[in-house]
Task: structure prediction
Amino acid sequence: MTVWDDLVGQDAAVEVLRTAAGAAREIHAGRDAAPGAMTHAWLFTGPAGSGRSVAARAFAAALECVRDGEPGCGECSGCHTTLGRSHPDVHAVVPEGLSISVAEMRAVVATAARLPALGRWQVVVIEDAEHPDDVSVTIRSRCRLVSLRIPPAEAIADVLRRGGVDAETATWAAQAGQGHVGRSRRLARDEAARARRAEVLAIPASLTSLQACLDAADHLVRAAEGEAAAISIELSTGETEALQIALGAGGTGKGTAAATRGTAGAVRELERRQKSRATRMQRDALDRALVDLAAFYRDVLLVHAGAAVPPAHPDFADDARSVAARLTAPGTLQRLDAVLACREALELNVKPRIAVEAMTAALRLP
Ligand SMILES: [Zn+2]
Result:
């Protein structure tokens, strides 16, 4: 097992990162390294779910790996604590709102300038820099770019099987996840995620009245809220407990009044960040539903075209046929456009309910 194992179908990127980690080790040891193999700033790009955070974290672990041999053993304390998010020299920056503020960037720069406490390098991982504005042209030009591709379904199925998922479910989940590794993993393992997907994909064929459109919009927004809440409560509880333990609160209660006030402030700060993360997660959950819907309308177009291409949602092929019987090909294209327009509106921070209601109204069947 190495730190690269969770990067699915990204052989080219892994090769670049392994070479860089090897060069970094030479540099740290004061030896000559292959020129240009290692640099101080890296930008991971690729479609959602391709593994940008996983790649960045794996690379950080390889840089902090303390075992001889190829960096990134996955077993030493450096690898372990980095992957487990507790290495003192590996810092994660998660944008507070939907993008990174100047103040946050200043803090990053200050952190990066310190000497490592324990490890070999100070590493700052900036996560969820989803929006193009987060990464200015200037920053881009100063970073080494690592482009991740959409992992092939077979590679995703393979990693699911290795994780103990049965072959049939793995193949289905890899297909249904449409190149999003985390999504495929949830579909393979989480009954609730499967049920949510099925509810989303049942929507197009059900939109026969305005009331049905409004109901569907309401359902989509609530389901996204629920999904985000479930994940974020799970994450947040652990974080809050960890912080309270770190600050000595909640234990024997021996802290002074001043320490308690400081603790409360830190907990409030954490809660504020958790809330902003929950907002992002809700948008992500909604976006996943829209990706499923867009793929459904592409399947409908395939029916119109009589194309012998496997559908994205083979288990909803009957629905795709029945919707195809009620829509013309141009009518189907209009609906696909409506789904994509909704995604864009959400990216522009339009309120989810407004954007989704506009979409479902446009999806109504004649
Ligand atoms: Zn290691």
